[in-house]
Design a protein that fits this description.
Elements lengths: L10 E6 L3 H6 L1 H10 L4 E6 L15 E4 L15 H14 L3 E4 L8 H9 L4 E5 L10 E3 L8 H10 L16 H13 L9 E4 L11 H15 L3 E3 L6 H9 L6 E3 L6 H10 L2 E5 L2 H8 L4 E4 L16 E4 L24 H16 L26
Parallel strand pairs: 1-2, 1-4, 2-3, 4-5, 5-6, 7-8, 7-10, 8-9, 10-11, 11-12
Helix pairs in contact: 2-5, 6-9, 7-8, 7-11
Length: 383
C-alpha cells in the first residue's frame, strides 16, 4: 500500500489492546501517524488499563476502551456475546476509514481485524505470518521477535508507506497532573525543591518482580549512601507490597504514595525524580519517555532488546540464565534471572546519580557489562 493511497482517509482507528507500558511505547507510531495525516482524526481502541496512558499522548483525538476477550479471557469462561455485538456496532457507527492493528511479537492481529471487518472498516492493516483470508486487507510480514516494540509499531507504518521521523518515546504531562502530584508529594513531606528516588516494585507478572525483601535493602542502602528519601509508587493492587517494603526498611526515609496516583500523576512524580529504580514494567517506559535516569531489574522473560530504555540514562540488571527468554507469567526456577544483590543495584544507582550531578551523559539503554545491539527495521515490505 502506498502512502498516497491514504490521502482520502479522515478517520483512523489505532488498535492497541495491551497495558499502560504498551500504549506508551505506541507513542512514536501515533506521533508519526498524526504527522502524516494531519487532517485525520485518530481514535485509539485500548484496554481499560492501557487507556489510562492516553492523556499523556497528544496525538490521540478520541478513545474507545474495551476489554477484549481474546486478550483477557473471562475467568469463568462465559462469553458476553452482547458486549461483542455492542463493540462492533460502536465501531461501525464511527465510520472509520482505516484500522491499524498494533500487536506484540507473537500476538495475532486477526481477532481485532475480524471485529473491524464486521464493523465495515475498509482498510485493515496488521503484522502477521498467517494470511487468514481477507480479514486483513494489507498484511505486513512482521519484524523478528527481538525487535524493539517501538520499531515494531513504526514498521507497520513504514510498510504502509508512511514517513517516520524519530524513534524515541515522548509524553506530554498535563499541568493538572503536575499540580496534583506536587500536592501529594508535599503531603508526604517532600517540598518542590527536595530531590528523591522513586522505587516502583510492582509489575504485571510475578516473573518480573524483584523480591520485596531485597527492595527493602535497596531502600536502606540508598538512604544511607545518598540521604535521599525514597518514594514508593504503584497501582492499588500493590499497596500491600509497598507497605511490606516500607516496614522492612525502618531506618530509611520512605514515603509511599502507592495506589494514590493516576497514570498521568505517576508520570509527573517520575518527571521530578532524581532516579527511578524498578522492574521491567510501565514506570520504566514512563521514565524513558521523560528522560529520567533509571536502574531496571530486567527479568529474563523476554530479550532486553524488545523493550529496553533508549532515551534515558539506564542500567539494566539481570543474572544470565539458560531459560531466558521464557515469556512466562510465573517463574518456575526461583527468579534466578533476578538474583542481583541490593548492593549491585545501589552501586548502579550511585553511578547514575553522580553522572547527573556532574552533568555527564551516560550511555542510554545499556547494561553494566555490555551495550545492546540497535535493532533497526529493514526496508518495509508488504505481502
Amino acid at each position: 500500500m502506498r502512502y498516497r493511497d491514504w490521502g482520502q482517509v479522515r478517520r483512523v482507528l489505532a488498535v492497541r489492546l495491551d497495558g499502560v507500558g504498551d500504549v506508551v511505547t505506541l507513542g512514536p507510531a501515533l506521533r508519526a501517524l498524526k504527522a502524516a495525516l494531519p487532517r485525520a482524526e485518530v481514535t485509539l481502541l485500548s484496554s481499560p488499563e492501557g487507556s489510562q496512558a492516553v492523556p499523556l499522548l497528544p496525538w490521540v483525538d478520541d478513545l474507545l476502551a474495551h476489554r477484549a476477550l481474546w486478550q483477557d479471557p473471562p475467568p469463568d469462561g462465559e462469553i458476553d456475546v452482547g458486549a461483542q455485538v455492542d463493540l462492533i456496532e460502536l465501531i461501525e457507527g464511527r465510520r472509520f476509514d482505516a484500522a491499524l492493528i498494533f500487536t506484540r511479537a507473537g500476538h495475532s492481529p486477526h481477532p481485532a481485524a475480524y471485529v473491524c471487518y464486521l464493523a465495515g472498516i475498509r482498510i485493515r492493516v496488521g503484522q502477521s505470518t498467517e494470511a487468514a483470508g481477507g480479514v486483513l486487507t494489507h498484511l505486513v510480514r512482521p519484524m523478528g521477535d527481538r525487535a524493539h516494540q517501538v520499531d515494531r509499531d513504526l514498521y507497520l507504518l513504514e510498510a504502509s508507506g508512511f514517513p517516520v521521523a524519530g524513534r524515541q518515546l515522548e509524553l506530554r504531562v498535563p499541568a493538572p497532573a503536575r499540580t496534583s502530584a506536587a500536592n501529594l508529594l508535599d503531603r508526604g513531606g517532600l517540598p518542590p525543591d527536595e530531590p528523591f528516588v522513586v522505587l516502583a516494585p510492582g509489575a504485571g507478572a510475578a516473573s518480573r518482580r524483584y523480591p520485596a525483601d531485597r527492595y527493602a535493602e535497596v531502600c536502606g542502602l540508598l538512604g544511607e549512601r545518598t540521604q535521599l528519601p525514597v518514594v514508593l509508587v504503584g497501582t492499588p493492587r500493590e499497596v500491600a507490597l509497598a507497605a511490606r517494603i516500607a516496614r522492612a526498611a525502618p531506618h530509611a526515609r520512605v514515603v509511599s504514595i502507592t495506589g494514590q496516583t493516576s497514570v498521568p500523576e505517576l508520570a509527573a512524580v517520575i518527571e521530578r525524580a532524581a532516579l527511578l529504580v524498578g522492574n521491567h514494567a510501565s514506570p520504566m517506559q514512563l521514565a524513558d519517555a521523560l528522560r529520567r535516569p533509571q536502574v531496571v531489574l530486567y527479568a529474563g522473560t523476554e530479550p532486553e532488546a524488545c523493550a529496553r530504555p533508549r532515551g534515558s540514562p539506564a542500567r539494566l540488571l539481570r543474572a544470565p540464565t539458560r531459560c531466558s527468554p521464557c515469556r512466562l507469567q510465573t517463574c518456575t526456577v526461583g527468579l534466578a534471572c533476578l538474583d542481583v544483590t541490593p548492593q549491585a543495584v545501589v552501586d548502579e544507582a550511585l553511578t547514575l546519580l553522580e553522572a547527573a550531578a556532574g552533568g555527564e551523559a551516560p550511555a542510554t539503554g545499556g547494561t553494566p557489562t555490555a551495550a545492546l545491539p540497535d535493532h533497526r527495521p529493514p526496508a518495509g515490505r508488504t505481502a
